[in-house]
Write a structure and sequence with these properties.
The chain is of the alpha+beta class. It has 2 domains: about 425 residues, Creatine Kinase, Chain A, domain 2; about 140 residues, CBS-domain, CATH 3.10.580.10. The strands form 7 sheets. Strands 1, 2, 3, 4, 5, 8, 13 and 14 form an 8-stranded antiparallel sheet that branches. Helix 1 packs across helix 9 and helix 5 runs antiparallel to helix 10. The N terminus and C terminus are likely disordered.
């Protein structure tokens, strides 16, 4: 859980004082490690569940802060966006029944979350990236009101000093600029913690890096963003790019991103890694701190608040952490790349798989820097994020399909690790069988989501398909069946559409022309593409006019177009346009009242789409599905 005690600005005095305490925390850590103050023989596990809130139409909700205020349970905490909440599960001793208790508490708290969300008309959903998200939910109004997130947004924008850029290419391509950090809020995770013996930190952390690619290949659940099919685990690319405060330069200087997998094996101790992070990554936030050395002199365990706050703004996929539990200090590794969903059962199985592998660390995989190229391990992680279960991984110097590696080596190894930790063969087998079933069928959350989405797009508007997919996901999660047993529904019941806004039915693949383009060329292009409306833009990308098929017919009724005419010479300069977010019903009324057949849709003075009478007629028919004889009167419109 993030520390909420944040100040918004960083004065020089504040920064100096915070760094003084941060360095004191490093000294305290070194002393505690040297004097053996850490718990080492009682491994524990924990988890953080990030979840999404959706309204009755399965759109992202705005009600998260209000719902949270109604929940009298400290297990719940806010998240970056108003449509997210977080559940912090209790730490558990890693022994027989640990994952059964984790699953029971998780389901109980999710049931509570649903009960508290219901009076607000909200539903709780587990997914790596909510399928019904649109760029509209990147508006600052969706940012959580908590001081921590407002301060984080402010500081990252100040440090970036330019818009955030996202470019992800998969089956589709997403290219986007944005001016706040809400792109990061699109990601929801199931973060798993494992307490370790500090003496084993180097070997266990390196082992955690080695297994990241194979584990991710079977746990992916985030293939879509804004209706585009991207990576098997799009969160990996999106999280890094959405919080990347580095500016592009023409020199060769390399700066590490704050969201990163790592550049090399760990060669030193826990504190060596912390020192490197402090040296590499500037402060983002400051907050209340304590004098750790003074606490140690009193014989008390320091909270290391400065270190923990700074460490919380460095988002390693395997993150080292410090904590205190039942009066004893500990070190743990946090696995941050596991996505939320598709079901609680799948999440706990993912956690058990990772923990089992961590506990099973074979002797031959110690001292990894001398045995394996780190670049191969990082490549495995990226390939698994891109391609999921269908990827080929490098393992022990050979290329092996992820499915083969999982079934023949890693799942049996995880079983040994869980049994070594005291789990019964029944409990370990029940959880790992879910992983095996996914590998056997090649059905991860990602593969089911993509298959269902493609079926829906055959009969739905793109945004409508996103909403219907979210509804299907919700129903399947309630079924209690793990994702490997889900079916792709080919026959979706026809019902009234969930579309309400023009953004959700407009055409965004727009053919536009420049003011100085020859009118003759524009006419040919419209004829080739059978297009009835073409916007005209100036050099700044602003729409300045509109050319319609009706207009061209009038101009050519007495012969061919004069070759000397440009688009600017023939375009209509006065035309109706509407802002993004306009309702379908309002757009219909404008078309009928003005006797026109299309409306450019604008966002910040730029064209983002065009909606026509045919688009709206199609939506109107779906709005009245089941109401015989209810027709929108587009036949009364003579489009111009």
């Amino acid at each position: 859980m993030g520390d909420q005690r944040i100040r918004r600005a960083l004065s020089v005095k504040e920064k100096q004082g915070f760094i003084h305490h941060l360095l004191g925390d490093v000294d305290a850590l070194e002393f505690m490690l040297k004097e053996d103050w850490f718990e080492k023989d009682s491994p524990r596990i924990g988890a953080e569940q990030e979840l999404c809130l959706v309204d009755h139409d399965f759109r992202p909700s705005m009600d998260g802060p209000e719902i949270l205020r109604s929940i009298p349970d400290p297990h719940f905490s806010p998240e970056l966006a108003r449509y997210n909440l977080e559940i912090n599960l209790d730490p558990l001793d890693l022994r027989s029944g640990a994952f059964t208790r984790m699953e029971a508490q998780l389901k109980e708290l999710l049931t509570d979350a649903s009960a508290y969300a219901s009076p607000f008309g909200n539903k709780v959903l587990l997914c790596g990236i909510l399928p019904s998200l649109t760029p509209r939910e990147l508006d600052p109004a969706y940012l959580s009101p908590q001081a921590r997130y407002r301060a984080l947004d402010l500081r990252l924008r100040q440090m970036r000093n330019s818009e955030f850029e996202v470019h992800i290419q998969g089956s589709d391509e997403l290219l986007l600029r944005h001016d706040n950090i809400l792109l990061e809020a699109c990601n929801t995770s199931f973060q798993v913690h494992l307490q370790i013996n500090p003496a084993d930190f180097r070997d266990l952390y390196n082992w955690a890096q080695l297994i990241s690619g194979p584990v991710l290949s079977i746990c992916n659940n985030s293939p879509l963003l804004f209706g585009k099919e991207l990576w098997a685990e799009t969160r990996i690319a999106l999280f890094q790019q959405s919080l990347d405060i580095r500016n592009k330069t023409n020199d060769l200087r390399q700066r590490k991103p704050r969201v990163n997998f790592g550049e090399d094996w760990v060669h030193g101790t826990f504190t060596d890694m912390i020192k490197d992070d402090i040296a590499r990554f500037p402060l983002i936030l400051t907050g209340e701190t304590e004098d750790s050395i003074a606490q140690i002199r009193k014989g008390s365990l320091p909270s290391l608040t400065a270190f923990r706050l700074h460490n919380g703004t460095i988002w390693k996929w395997n993150r080292p952490c410090y904590g205190i539990h039942r009066g004893k200090a500990h070190i743990r590794i946090e696995c941050r790349y596991l996505p939320s969903g598709p079901t609680p059962e799948d999440e706990v199985a993912n956690a058990a798989f990772w923990v089992g592998l961590m506990q099973a660390l074979p002797e031959q995989y110690r001292h990894l820097p001398a045995k394996t190229e780190f670049n191969e391990v990082r490549e495995n992680f990226i390939k698994a994020a891109r391609y999921g279960i269908n990827t080929e991984l490098k393992w022990n110097g050979r290329s092996v399909p992820a499915k083969t590696l999982l079934l023949e080596e890693l799942i049996p190894l995880a079983a040994r690790g869980l049994e070594k930790s005291g789990l019964t063969s029944y409990e370990a087998g029940r959880l790992l069988n879910l992983i095996s079933e996914r590998a056997d069928t090649r059905q991860t959350g990602t593969r089911w989501t993509v298959g269902q989405y493609r079926e829906l797009k055959k009969r739905c508007e793109p945004v409508e398909a996103q909403l219907e997919l979210t509804a299907c996901l919700y129903e399947y999660q309630r079924s209690g069946h793990p994702v490997a047993r889900w079916k792709t529904l080919k026959g979706i019941e026809r019902r009234a559409t969930r579309i309400r806004l023009v953004d959700e039915c407009m055409t965004t693949d727009i053919l536009s022309v420049q003011e100085d383009d020859p009118a003759e060329l524009v006419a040919r292009m419209m004829d080739w593409r059978n297009i009835h409306h073409v916007p005209v833009e100036n050099d700044a990308g602003h729409i300045t006019g509109l050319i319609t098929a009706t207009l061209l017919q009038k101009l050519t009724s007495r012969g061919s177009l004069d070759p000397s005419l440009s688009a600017a010479d023939i375009m209509v300069r006065e035309f109706h346009r509407i802002p993004a977010g306009t309702t379908v019903l309002d757009a219909m009324q404008i078309l009928l009242r003005e006797n026109i057949s299309c409306l450019p849709v604008m966002s910040d003075r730029r064209l983002c789409g065009i909606v026509t009478d045919k688009d709206l007629a199609r939506v109107w028919e779906k709005m009245n599905a089941g109401s015989a004889g209810t027709l929108w009167p587009p036949a009364t419109i003579s489009g111009n």
